[in-house]
Amino acid sequence: MLEQLKEQVFQANIDLVNHGLVVLTRGTASGIDRESGLVVIKPDGIPHQKIKPKDMVVLNLYGQVEEGNLQPSGDAPTHLVLYRQFKNIGGVVHTYSEWATCWAQAGRGIPPLGTAHTEYFYGEIPCTRKMTRNEMESNFEHETGKVIVERFRELNPDQIPGVLVNNHGPFTWGADVNNAVQNAIALEKVAQMAFRTLIINPDAEMGAALLNKHFFKKNKNYGQK
Amino acid sequence: MLEQLKEQVFQANIDLVNHGLVVLTRGTASGIDRESGLVVIKPDGIPHQKIKPKDMVVLNLYGQVEEGNLQPSGDAPTHLVLYRQFKNIGGVVHTYSEWATCWAQAGRGIPPLGTAHTEYFYGEIPCTRKMTRNEMESNFEHETGKVIVERFRELNPDQIPGVLVNNHGPFTWGADVNNAVQNAIALEKVAQMAFRTLIINPDAEMGAALLNKHFFKKNKNYGQK
Amino acid sequence: MLEQLKEQVFQANIDLVNHGLVVLTRGTASGIDRESGLVVIKPDGIPHQKIKPKDMVVLNLYGQVEEGNLQPSGDAPTHLVLYRQFKNIGGVVHTYSEWATCWAQAGRGIPPLGTAHTEYFYGEIPCTRKMTRNEMESNFEHETGKVIVERFRELNPDQIPGVLVNNHGPFTWGADVNNAVQNAIALEKVAQMAFRTLIINPDAEMGAALLNKHFFKKNKNYGQK
Amino acid sequence: MLEQLKEQVFQANIDLVNHGLVVLTRGTASGIDRESGLVVIKPDGIPHQKIKPKDMVVLNLYGQVEEGNLQPSGDAPTHLVLYRQFKNIGGVVHTYSEWATCWAQAGRGIPPLGTAHTEYFYGEIPCTRKMTRNEMESNFEHETGKVIVERFRELNPDQIPGVLVNNHGPFTWGADVNNAVQNAIALEKVAQMAFRTLIINPDAEMGAALLNKHFFKKNKNYGQK
Predict the structure, then answer these.
(1) Boundaries of each Class II aldolase/adducin N-terminal domain copy (chains A, B, C, D) (predicted)?
(2) Does D168 touch chain B (CB under 8 A)?
(3) Would the ipTM clear 0.85, i.e. be above it?
(4) Distance from A13 to chain B by nearest Cα, in Å?
């Protein structure tokens, strides 16, 4: 079942490799079929080079395997929390991409410094608080999802489709799994350029007007009709 | 019409990709036929991988489409201001290239620090002032062109064929569209090396004599006759 | 003899090149057959591009050539000290990889800053003390091994499978030669990301709980059964 | 004449491209036949992609073209000064390679920080003083050679086969043109790693004992007999 979604999720996982986002073998993309409430995700511990579309694992929103003989990615519990709480998202990506992970390790959100940022993220890409010992020692991946949701209590995940998990790495999401991959690519580039920008000028910032203008303009003014 | 210029502009847009200057899909090259006053530019929202020479859009200097069924690049208004104000230029390029964009986001001009810089740019590559809320909320791309022209009030665009737009990214130009691409490549390299140079020695600078010598020498002493 | 190990050690040396870890021609991988106590290592001074499995040199643990007409790598004495002292390791790698070598040159250990680090290294990747003039002027490679072992007097080499030799470069090891290569790849990425993380936030650190959790979790919870 | 040397010099110029050292089209390798006192150098202004062995220009040590219809590289006067003053060298390379050029622009020599450095350069890779206005306004390339020679008045060019020309870029040399290319590759890597090392630890340095040990060891202890 969900053969088309499996194909998309498979391709998204391959795209992560092709865009250089898979570091130290870490890189998981998933997608959801909102109608059935079923999630398709990469199997665990199998190198990207060896996966096939039919290896994708089908889960329900509570983590039970509905189809497939392989174990789902160990990151699945985080993805599931996000699908349950962020009602509009259709895909999730997690990597150790080499620039975004540094901001996550530093425990710092990435401030908006230019239109390259605001075409994808409406404001700072936030970083979660550090997790407590209790949270880590129960179900780490599940608690990771919860701490992300907590961080978005006053933020709109549809306008800021990504987060940095403290001392861990980035997650992105989007309308579908391909969009989540595009946001992971954008996050990586934004993370790289913010790093360099703040070295050139530690006081760099952009005004709210440009932030508003550019984010809301993007989907309105560009492209063919 | 302008089939040869369309071919050149097409190739220039592909060259931007081949030189790694297209970041987050942003990268537009255009060229002008000064005799007819017509501008050829990449269509909007179509990935570089899919464009063909015949997709290039022909505009007059006031933005009206003279040929082509596709929308011109959303950046066209900026290009048009530059063509109207900088009378000698034949091509314009805009990207989010990964080093020059950082200087733009930092709001800092790139100082000349060595002969690699002065072979292409006679002095600092300037950064525009931040735009006002009013400028942003009217026609952002048109105002972007105006703020560039304002910044060059006392500078010679033929000697400094590039600029950084504050919180946005770089524009370069040249005698023709290929020359504008070459200047975009040079700007990127100069931006990278200035970043590193000023980390090694924050007080680095070059004397006016070497700046003069090398810039004016370039087109005189080198190459085959 | 040891044809299978020669093939593995050969492949590991090629893998170092393919992963970009061979800088300035430096890059040596070796493996040990614990039953016979024989070590297989790359020959000295022959470019990686030209070696074949049959060129691998077989040594005993005291450095005598047991098979092969070529000289063993000049780094062999260091490898042999590690095999003699770290009883569980099956492979060793030494490179001048471009990020880890910088930490070695800086004389600084790499602190654990995120789960990317702790999936491979349980705590700081230590740096040795500087060697004395006497140590350098006797047998440099042998003394290099001894100073590594000294540094691990209160550390567990099975939990921290790598080290930075002061003013020199990194060594990694593992259960077999392929595992040593994987740890060299991980060390390089960790070194790169720690460099950037501490620029973003000089006070970055991770708590002991996350360190424990993630290191011990890795081999338990992930992968297919 | 000198067909074999032309072939070597041609190949060396191509190697500069293949190793990523040609930045902004700048990259010239030359070689000398000490018996005849003739120098073979890349022609000027022709892209590396288009040169052929037969295009190499033959000059005498005073700059007169002995063979070839093309103009010699504009950098030839610098090469000739080095060949006249550094009696043992057989090849010279000049580039704008992206790390060494930053140290040159910063006006800073590259200190020895590890064995990767001292395997190629016995001590700091020096930077020349800034040139005077007079020097620049007479024959820039010739004066560039003279300022390099001045910098080596108390240094041994056979032990330190490279230099940074202030506000300009690196030159390297060697026993032959291929060796000069190898030293250009090494200089680039050393420049990159010193940059990063001094960010990690601004007080990094290496002792004289290790410097001596490693430099003089290199050609004695390694390789096959």
Answers:
(1) 7-195
(2) yes
(3) yes
(4) 19
